[in-house]
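#dry-run=false #mode=assembly
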Amino acid sequence: MKLLIKNGRVIDPSSNIDDTLDILIEKGKIVNIKSKIEDKQAKIIDATRLIVAPGFIDMHVHLREPGREDKETIESGSKAAARGGFTTICCMPNTDPVNDNRGVTEYIISEARRKAIVNIYPIAAISIGSKGKELTDMVDLKEAGAIAFSDDGQPILDSNLMRRALEYSKLIDTPIIDHCEDKFLSQNGVMNEGFYSYLFGLAGIPSAAEEIMIARDLILAEKTGARLHIAHISTKGSVEYLKMAKEKGVRVTAEVTPHHLILADSCLETYDTNLKVNPPLRSKSDIMALRNALKEGIIDVIATDHAPHTEDEKNVEFDFAPFGINGLETAVSLILDQCVNSGIISIQKCIELFSTNPALILGLKSKGKIQIGADADITILNLHKEIVIDKNKFQSKSRNTPFHGWKLKGTPVMTIVDGKIVWDER
Amino acid sequence: MPFNQKHLLGIKDLSKEEIMTILEVAESFREISIREIKKVPTLRGKTIINLFYEPSTRTRSSFEIAAKRLSADIINFNSSTSSVAKGESLKDTVLNLEAMKPDAIIIRHPASGAPYFLTTFCKSSIINAGDGTHEHPTQALLDALTIKQEKGDFSKLKVVIAGDILHSRVAKSNIFLLTKLGAKVILSGPPPLIPPEFKEFGAEIDYNFDNALKDADIVMMLRIQLERQGKNFFPSLREYRNLYSLTLERMEKAKKDAIIMHPGPINRGIELSAELADSSRSAILKQVENGIAVRMAILYLLLGGGRK
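#status=ok
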């Protein structure tokens, strides 16, 4: 089945295209791009007044399968991704069992092949059991299909292990993704440390817990020459260290989540456990620094850190709730409303952050671009459509969003994966 | 009388006028406790649940006596462990208790914000009897009543609060209350236990206790929680005692008529010397006595006469 996307504003930052063009898709590939394509056999998608972008890639997702299928599965998570405008997602290894061996990686890939409606790439653990002691068989895992390595959620405290992981990763030129947190500093903290943690009587996680680990990782990345990707950067200080390292030529990239760009620690006055997330929501000045860093290209990627949790797990005292925000189905609308339509970043920059850059970082050579021969993964956006976030419409198995009821302008309306329409809400 | 709250969650949420109303009502209730028949029918037919997830002597019995003196029916629900450890969630427990149609639930809980959580699904009035390191509003109110009786006007007072400010819900509620009423509040203790951000609450910080005490009208000592030892908030009890224990000698620096307060339980000889605790300058037992009147006032204002 051929698809012909007509009259859309095609934006592809990888080739500097921003023009009204038609795109012809056949057998999962983009076969033609120009103004006014005619093809009688093709199914026509009218994209007038819509933006046609290379498929969005979320490189930080928790799918919970295997182990916690009550929170999310590969199937439900893929539907949530499709609904949220993502054509490709990468799932973190903190499942049960941990994705630290070929068996788990292959299980995820085969489940994804059978049940997922978007592309799924597993991220494997850096250390066995993510226990921070011994390296996993990284080359074997890469061959099995792991796209990157991370001990997300279980930060690597041992600097020597981090050094060895970075050194060893040079064999496969695959990024090491670190959740930067010094657990000695974060202790039993549940929110950002500062005026508001004292006001609300909640144990604080200082910015220093993140910044110390980022500084350490940057030093090690510089010494080893390996590729480092920093997960969910959240503080002003982290941005400053990152900027310094990039200026020195360290091979580092970084991502930020929508919630860290939008919500400040002051909103925790409700003790709403849907706002409990790690790294925690930071101060207003951190938010300003993160937004500036997006503009200036210091931060490369927007990723959701989609962390589904059941309602029962979240319906408890703040101290006892698990960390995490359900992000796949709200991220793109939030960024379009809060960052693009409000003038902080351009739509081109937005597409770069959601598609071009993650594809480059992950080495997905035929994704993240709209070019002849590229994979037919397409995200179509409507910048003018107004929506209300309704957690009850989520495709995710979980509902843990602090954005329920938010009115937003701008939303993904169609998701095309491998030449097939997997979501259509035009 | 300006008082239109459904719950008592924290001092933070109260206006100066509401605080003064509570203190006035409490003052008028004090007399009931010295009658021969210590009971009035004001809250007859009201049901109150004391839901304590942390050990408590003073607060729990004080609420119980306050309720009984107003003729309310009160039951005690004690749990030395958290709901999560027990297996039943706090929400389930409270929903079950709510099904028994209480008018108010008094909750003490180790997690900050637990009383706020209850208000999201309860019909009863929720009264915070201490939540985590957040607030302990009735303690601050009974402290205020004691200060008012002893000193009258708040605006001319210098109040020193000393000890583990960071983890103290009593300190927090007192800072909010005393600054609202115009008193000058000085916090003293080891720097790791008083982050500089506490200045933003309107208090001053002086890590040197001897300096802080100069010309103080009120010295409020906090219990140093022994479980904080070994976590490096301060090196040792010995060093803590040397620097922050309130002794007769140190008390000389305060005003001659300065009084000593403590929310209890006291670690005698650690934060407060035994001779001071038992001296005429100590208002500690007066605080406990005032606790009954303040809690009667709270129950009355929330369940009886206060609300429209």
